[in-house]
Amino acid sequence: MFYSLKSRLNYSLGKIVPTNFIIKGLELHPATLLLELTNICNANCIYCGYRFMKRKKGVMSEVLFKKLVDEFDDMGGGDINITGIVGDPLVNQNIVERITYLRTKKNIRNIKLSTNGILLQKVGIKRLLESGVNSILINMGGMDKETYKMLFGTDAFYEVYENVREILNTNKSIDRTVDLTIVIKYISLDGMSKNKSYLLLKELGKNSHKKIIFDNIYDSWCGRISKNDMIGDMKLKLNREKKEPCSLLYNTLSIMWNGDVVPCCRDLDGDLILGNVMEQSIIDIWKGNILKNLRESFTQGTIPSICDKCEHYEGLKPIKSLHLFKRSLAFRQKEVCDV
Ligand code: SF4
To answer: For the chain, does the N or the C end have fewer beta carbons within 10 angstroms?
Structure first.
């Protein structure tokens, strides 16, 4: 099997750098901020926690958005993911203006988003590609109308397919190309290699900085989705034993549209609220006792019920990436300079 240089470097790094060394740096500063611009979605996917959400729906205010971006930039910045815990970021009417604002900040690095692609045309494909976003992931449901409706709960296959074709084409013609990932969720791969729509997408994607990935593996959103929800070849991940902290507690801070801060993108209804950024700073929440105790609960065997039921958990393995190692070093250096 062929491994890229990056994977090989990451693998070697995992073997030689003690996890604790990387963790100590990451505890100083979140490497990624997940901003839930909205928790409203225009689809109702069978594999997503959205249909079980009990909290109020809304859109992050302009004031709160700018406050968070300014604060994150001032403290040294990092990566921004504008995909909500649930919700489609393109539902936010000012999505392009918000990305443009993020791009004006010198310490904001990668800006990424995931979408179902239904509203791409409405937002303006060229405008979005030229907004300053670095990567866009588009989820598609199979390669036909019926599969799409079964998986996404709405009848938008042709619309999304045309949008994906257009974004792939447009990405070839703009100056600063965006990394595009098209994820095809499937029920069955039978006949896919000869499916005309798929072959056309594959052909179109050449030289357009895209990846096409097939996906049939899901997690239960902490026990909300069951095996009975899986159709055809769809599968639920196994719930692994959790002896070490979840990596998400060290590399990402997730902020809901109303300012509530939660530890990860699987805390759908805010069971584990760490604070609220209207009253506290990002860094105080990141270094605060609630998150510290949550990390420790894994080694003490007292993890919260939602973590116990979570298959999104990966342990600390993802921490040992070259990217996070570098970020950890930078946070340690900054801490020394700031003292
Ligand atoms: S185990 Fe799951 S619910 Fe708990 S912090 Fe990790 S991703 Fe979130």
So the answer is: N
How far, in Å, is the centroid of ligand 1 from the Cα of 50?
17
Q: What digits encode the pLDDT tens for the residues 153-164?
A: 999 999 999 999
Record the tokens describing residue 186, joined without a space: 């499937």
Nearest one of 11, 82, 89 to 43, comparing CA atoms: 89
326 Cα–ligand 1 center, Å: 24
Measured CA to CA, the distance from residue 15 to residue 176 in angstroms comes to: 36
Ligand 1 pocket, mutate which of 267, 295, 303, 317 (most atoms under 8 A from CB): 267
pLDDT over threshold 80, residue 2: no
Report how many helices (DSSP H) and strands (DSSP E) the chain contains, helices first.
14, 11
Residue with CA at minimum distance from ligand 1 atom 4: 307
Span 66-79, pLDDT tens digits: 999 999 999 999 99
**Dihedral (CA of 245, 249, 252, 254) sign:** positive
CA 102 to chain centre: 17
Q: What is the dihedral of CA 78, 81, 85, 90, to 10 degrees?
A: 150
- Distance (Å, whole) CA 298 – CA 221: 19
What residues are in contact with ligand 1 under a 6 Å CB criterion? 222, 246, 248-249, 263-264, 266-267, 306-307, 310, 312-313
**3-state class (DSSP) for residue 107:** coil
Nearest alpha carbon to residue 45 among 83, 87, 81 = 87
